[in-house]
């Protein structure tokens, strides 16, 4: 079966986030959306006459659903339904952290971005793609989206999470996806950069999911 894979990076990144996993999909039709944090955003209309597989990293899942509704399947990398969490205690603590990050972005966006990157990964040094064109106003606006609850369509959905993710930690994953029909797989040491980290493992899990051979 022929698919059209549409990728959307998450907060604080650009389309180059997918550079390491893109070669795995070299024989597939792919589109890589850029949200415009460092350059002009992509203007792309997703065709309605193709079987679209949406692959979103973190906030990129929500952004995909804003663009298109009729996905064949969805894959979330380091994804979430509710970034702050549904449980009141968890939500209260994460709201404090989010407000601190928002305040930092308003006063010193570059320091805030570096702080965010350090939480995304301790093993990989992540650098700002383009400091000169950083759109800090857009980033502040997008941070508020993290207070939203994502309503997922009723299509087969796979969530690939990391056991050492400091941005969307395991307690948020279990808070968000326990008692749902969504397929969840937790990868060792993927941090908050799945796709950039462990690209081959992520690719293989995606293809197994699409082929119907995924084991739970």
Describe this structure in words.
The structure is a single chain. The chain has a single domain (4-88, 123-211), classed as Rossmann fold. It contains six helices and six strands; from the N terminus they run βββαβαααβαβα. The chain has helices at residues 60-67, 88-107, 109-120, 136-144, 170-177, 199-211; strands at 4-8, 29-33, 52-57, 73-77, 157-162, 183-187. The longest helix has 20 residues, at 88-107. The radius of gyration is 16 Å and the shape is globular. The mean pLDDT is 92. GO terms for molecular function: hydrolase activity.
In short:
By secondary structure, this protein is α/β, with parallel strands linked by helices. It is built from 6 helices and 6 strands. It has a single domain, classed as 3-Layer(aba) Sandwich (Rossmann fold).
Which secondary structure elements does this structure contain, and how are they paired or packed?
Elements: E1 4-8, E2 29-33, E3 52-57, H1 60-67, E4 73-77, H2 88-107, H3 109-120, H4 136-144, E5 157-162, H5 170-177, E6 183-187, H6 199-211
Parallel strand pairs: 1-2, 1-3, 3-4, 4-5, 5-6
Helix pairs in contact: 2-3, 2-4
Protein name: Putative BioH-like alpha-beta hydrolase family protein
Organism: Candidatus Fokinia solitaria
Keywords: Hydrolase
């Amino acid at each position: 079966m022929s698919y059209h894979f549409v990728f959307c990076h998450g907060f604080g990144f650009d389309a180059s986030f997918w550079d390491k996993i893109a070669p795995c999909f070299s024989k597939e039709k792919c589109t890589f959306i850029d949200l415009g944090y460092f350059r002009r955003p992509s203007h792309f209309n997703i065709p309605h006459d193709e079987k679209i597989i949406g692959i979103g990293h973190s906030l990129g899942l929500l952004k995909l659903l804003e663009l298109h509704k009729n996905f064949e399947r969805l894959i979330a990398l380091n994804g979430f339904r509710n970034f702050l969490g549904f449980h009141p205690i968890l939500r209260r603590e994460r709201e404090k952290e989010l407000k601190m990050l928002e305040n930092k972005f308003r006063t010193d966006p570059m320091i805030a971005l570096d702080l965010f990157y350090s939480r995304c990964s301790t093993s990989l040094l992540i650098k700002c793609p383009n400091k000169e064109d950083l759109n800090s106003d857009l980033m502040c606006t997008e941070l508020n989206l993290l207070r939203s609850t994502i309503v997922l369509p009723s299509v087969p959905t796979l969530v690939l999470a990391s056991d050492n993710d400091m941005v969307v930690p395991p307690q948020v994953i279990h808070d968000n996806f326990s008692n749902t029909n969504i397929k969840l797989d937790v990868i060792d040491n993927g941090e908050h950069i799945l796709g950039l980290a462990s690209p081959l493992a992520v690719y293989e899990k995606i293809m197994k999911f699409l082929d119907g051979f995924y084991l739970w």
